[in-house]
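note to self — DONT lose this again. spent like an hour looking for the file last time. sequence + predicted structure for the chain T wanted, 77 res
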Amino acid sequence: MKVRVHVSLKNGVLDPQGRAIHHALEGLGFDGVNDVRAGRLIELDVADSVSDESIEDMCRKLLANQVIENFRIEKVA
């Protein structure tokens, strides 16, 4: 089973990578971009027997820093 874990910074946490992307977009002449928040995508290929609880546990313990990040799990068909 394929699983995607979307990790993003919580609101209020500074995002220097997002700011750099925003600045670069402006430098390239792209107008109208108000804000940029950068995150990451982690794709897992797990056995069908791996439970949802186990995947959430992976996220809490390793894949996301819950102090400053949120995560969302997406099962891919």
